[in-house]
Amino acid sequence: MNLANLLVRAGRCFGKHSAVAAGPRVVVDYETLAARVAALAGALRSRYGLQPGDRVALAMKNCPAYLEVLFGAWHAGLVAVPVNAKLSAPEVQYILDNSGARMCFVTSHLAEAVRPLVQGVATLEQVIAVEDAAYGELFGGEPVGVRERAPADPAWLFYTSGTTGKPKGATLTHRNLAAMISGYFSDVDPLQPGEGILHAAPMSHGSGLYALPYVAVGGLHIIPDSGGFDPDEIFDLLAVHERVSFFAAPTMVRRLTAAALRSKPDVHNLKTVTYGGGPMYVEDLREAMEVFGNRFVQIYGQGESPMTITAMSKLAHAQSDSPDYQHRLASVGRPQTLVEVSVMDADNAPLPPGEVGEVCVRGDIVMPGYWNNPEASAEALADGWLHTGDMGCFDEQGFLYLKDRSKDVIISGGTNVYPREVEEVLLAHHAVAEVAVLGDADPEWGEVVVAFVVPAGDTPVAATDLDDHCVQHIARFKRPRRYYFVDDLPKNAYGKVLKRSLRERLQAESAVLV
Ligand code: AMP
Q1: Pairing of the two strands 25-29 and 357-362
Q2: pTM across the whole model
Q3: What residue intervals traverse the membrane (predicted)?
Q4: How far is the CA of 385 from the centre of ligand 1 (A)?
């Protein structure tokens, strides 16, 4: 079983279907793409002597060559290591070192930073920029057949976003990703041949993982010319391509909504926006649905169980007459069909609905472990379950509500406060654009709740207004005792708020009490 066969099959079954578009222009069909990938695999094996199981890194922005390199590596029996293109050179170096990559493909913006690493990373032999002539030369040789792989063989080393420490390489096998593809069809969005996926989110992460079901059906991969997320560019591409879907982080959905309110684009070609990867605040979701209609699906997953733990279907988004509707919009949906999800207490015993514990996952989707890190693997996979580190609870209908990562829960006066709940309330205030709530050490209470707030617009909002607002909506003990007004929140390369940096800031400075 080798995922490379998805593309071989697409080449045979959907040969003349458009495979990749650079912005508005189709650049390759499936027959040609499959042939190019077979030739690239031949070059990787014969010219560079790469052996099955060797690692090839992709430090690349989204670009038309992305799928070629990914599938070329698999076709040759290699393990792909997609690296976020926004990482700094030392972060890329860490991943190349940790994965033992022998080769690294880059887009030119990273070429200068990565080329010298051939000296700094013991295993690294070659760095090739996909814009260079050297890349084109890789397609001149003989195509080869797919190198057979076992389902348990690694396919993709997925480096976690490192919000809590050094990134770890979740080892995703061919079987894991096959399970993710089934989950996409059964729980996220059934596809017809010819539908399009717009890669506006990083292909090193969710968008690249979701490329796979589209290869399976001979779908079109649309790569924005910017290589990233630009709402106006997306609206332009929706005017050209039909039946288009994409994956977006919640912050992207928010920016998309704001841009659409300004420019009122025609979105009839937009089929589905799948969002996830971080909390979607109910206020943002409501507004997005008002603007774009019922086109949203939510997924909850993590690198260790890629894109696949729960999903909230379009149907669940649409059932506004259901009595629990408002509440449910704050959930992450129900367990995906082929995944076991359990909420467990500290002794790994399952908890009943309504009780908060750690979300644990079991099934073909779960990684076998972290690359070269047996201690972290044993901890994450204790008792045969993936311990996600997320706290949550089920309701009686099987909807899962995430509270927060266990380490983010604030314990104030012995009572748990879940930052997400306080953030939801503050975001509903018209003067708040973004917010991050966390705990700060306090001699009396253990921890007190504090909030970092990015005001909406230019007039700063008064802390007393926000305090009144909180008192109206949540228990008094949950309300922030201090507010810090900031221009923006620190985020990592995936757009996730770095609470760790905010904590460090709290420790470092005695910020002005508002
Ligand atoms: P990563 O492995 O970098 O993709 O991060 C995964 C983490 O992001 C999960 O463990 C959750 O804490 C968070 N996450 C992912 N999807 C969602 C979602 N739909 N809602 C809230 N948090 C999410």
Answers
A1: unpaired
A2: 0.88
A3: none
A4: 17
Distances (CA, A) of 439 to 9, 272, 413, 442, 468: 52, 37, 12, 9, 20
Q: DSSP letters of 342-395?
A: EEE-TTSPBPPTT--EEEEEESTTS-S-BTT-HHHHHHHTGGGSEEEEEEEEE-
| 313, 305 contact by CB (below 8 A) | no
The residue among 453, 456, 452, 463 whose CA lies nearest residue 502 is 452
Specify the DSSP class assigned to residue 436: E
Longest dimension (CA), the chain: 72
Indicate if ligand 1 lies below 6 Å from the C-beta of 402. yes
302 CB near ligand 1 (under 6 Å) = yes
Domain ranges of the chain: 410-513
388 CA → ligand 1 middle, Å = 9
Do 344 and 385 meet the contact criterion of CB atoms below 8 Å apart?
yes
In three-state secondary structure terms, 110 is: helix
Question: Is ligand 1 within 6 A of the CB of residue 405?
Answer: yes
Bridge-based pairing state of the strands 482-485 and 446-455? parallel
The class that CATH gives domain 410-513 is alpha beta
- Block means of pLDDT (10 residues each) for the chain, 514 residues, are 97 98 98 98 97 98 98 98 90 96 97 95 98 97 96 96 75 98 98 96 96 98 96 98 96 93 97 93 94 98 97 96 91 97 95 96 98 95 94 96 82 82 91 93 86 87 93 89 93 81 81 43
Number of residues that make up the chain:
514
Whole-angstrom distance, CA of residue 30 vs CA of residue 34: 6
> How many angstroms is it from 310 CA to the middle of ligand 1?
11
Would the CB of 204 count as within 6 Å of ligand 1?
no
Cα–Cα nearest to 19, from 65, 58, 59: 65
Sheet holding 244-248, edge to edge: 25-29, 18-22, 220-223, 196-198, 244-248, 270-276, 296-302, 305-312, 334-335
Determine contact, residues 72/40, Cβ cutoff 8 Å: yes
